[in-house]
């Protein structure tokens, strides 16, 4: 099968490796679409120098083969089903997994492929092997929308971490792809209002077109009604500072965007204490979040809003163009569709 491997900054090649075999609890999936997120951009630009690496973790596909034990289970996916895939390692035995926090599983992520490449999702390929428990059927929808299952599950997790309640006033700091997913989920979950705070005027305009109640620059947050929940989707101290200025007394602030190389932000301890603010992080997703995300995708209720976030589609043979576009220009999501 063909698989894309990033070999150095700005360099990617298509290699041939064997189609993975499967065990009794596995599913072989023929990939239909893979979204390129910040991780793939960092690998391609050299900001995350891990080589050679087979990336791609926002993946959809059709079930090609099912292991015998998995096939015998009630509600097992059927051959031909369109599915969205959880490619996170969840060992089930570390302290975090046993506490129900598999989003922060302590086991090393990734794998080693037959050609010696490091597998970090390995979704820029024709096939992938996945444990049956990580396969979520989504019905007859656009495969590119199905590939948004992973980021959508992350946003569902973010809402759970926030203790979100219908009727909350919501502020989203950042109008990029993940900010827009927070916007559409808040709309779906009947927020009283949703405001997007964004420096780029074009993205502010796009957020308004997508139904945001307001979209403002950070310097203008003082004119907003204070928010019950603030989602920070940008990894910067400035964004976190803006979140505190946007929050109502008693608000919940979720630090969703993060990067290991971002400078630390100062925590206004007295403000958190006096105003009874709750500050929490949100990283990755849990199986319960996948269940919700797959149901949302299967329902089709988000389809029109998800379609607005598709920047472009490329064939696997043109993966270099896809990676260049996703890492060098402002985009929502660029997708690779093996065919």
TrEMBL record:
Cofactor(s) needed for function: Zn(2+)
Keywords on record: Metal-binding, Oxidoreductase, Zinc
Residue ranges annotated for the Alcohol dehydrogenase-like N-terminal domain, each copy included: 23-139
Residues in Alcohol dehydrogenase-like C-terminal domain copies: 180-297
PROSITE patterns registered for this protein in UniProt: ADH_ZINC
Keyword Zinc: yes
Catalyzed chemical reaction(s): 2-deoxy-scyllo-inosamine + NAD(+) = 3-amino-2,3-dideoxy-scyllo-inosose + NADH + H(+); 2-deoxy-scyllo-inosamine + NADP(+) = 3-amino-2,3-dideoxy-scyllo-inosose + NADPH + H(+)
Gene3D superfamilies membership: Medium-chain alcohol dehydrogenases, catalytic domain, NAD(P)-binding Rossmann-like Domain
PANTHER family the UniProt entry points to: L-THREONINE 3-DEHYDROGENASE
Protein name listed in UniProt: 2-deoxy-scyllo-inosamine dehydrogenase
Organism of provenance: Streptomyces incarnatus
């Amino acid at each position: 099968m063909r698989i894309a491997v990033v070999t150095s900054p700005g360099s990617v090649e298509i290699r041939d490796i064997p189609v993975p075999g499967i065990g009794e609890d596995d599913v072989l999936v023929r990939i239909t679409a893979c979204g390129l997120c910040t991780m793939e951009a960092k690998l391609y630009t050299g900001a995350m120098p891990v080589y050679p690496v087979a990336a791609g973790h926002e993946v959809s596909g059709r079930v090609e083969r099912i292991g015998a034990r998995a096939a015998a289970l009630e509600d097992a996916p059927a051959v031909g089903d369109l599915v969205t895939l959880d490619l996170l390692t969840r060992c089930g035995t570390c302290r975090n997994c046993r506490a129900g926090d598999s989003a922060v599983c302590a086991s090393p992520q990734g794998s080693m492929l037959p050609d010696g490449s490091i597998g970090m999702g390995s979704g820029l390929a024709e096939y992938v092997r996945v444990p049956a428990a990580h396969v979520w059927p989504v019905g007859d929808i656009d495969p590119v929308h199905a590939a948004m299952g992973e980021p959508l599950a992350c946003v569902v997790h973010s809402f759970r971490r926030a203790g979100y309640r219908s009727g909350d006033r919501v502020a989203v700091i950042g109008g990029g792809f993940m900010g827009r997913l927070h916007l559409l989920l808040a709309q779906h979950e009947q927020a009283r209002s949703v405001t997007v705070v964004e420096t780029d005027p074009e993205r502010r305009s796009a957020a308004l077109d997508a139904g945001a109640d307001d979209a403002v620059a950070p310097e203008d947050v003082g004119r907003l009604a204070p928010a019950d929940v603030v989602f920070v989707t940008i990894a910067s101290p400035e964004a976190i500072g803006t979140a505190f200025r946007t929050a109502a007394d008693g608000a919940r602030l979720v630090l969703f965007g993060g990067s290991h190389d971002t400078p630390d932000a100062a925590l206004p301890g007295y403000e958190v204490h006096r105003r009874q603010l709750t500050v929490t992080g949100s990283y990755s997703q849990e199986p319960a979040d996948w269940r919700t995300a797959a149901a949302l995708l299967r329902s089709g209720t988000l389809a029109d809003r998800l379609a607005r976030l598709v920047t472009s589609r490329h064939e696997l043979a043109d993966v270099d163009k896809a990676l260049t576009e996703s890492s060098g220009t402002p985009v929502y999501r660029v997708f690779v569709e093996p065919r």
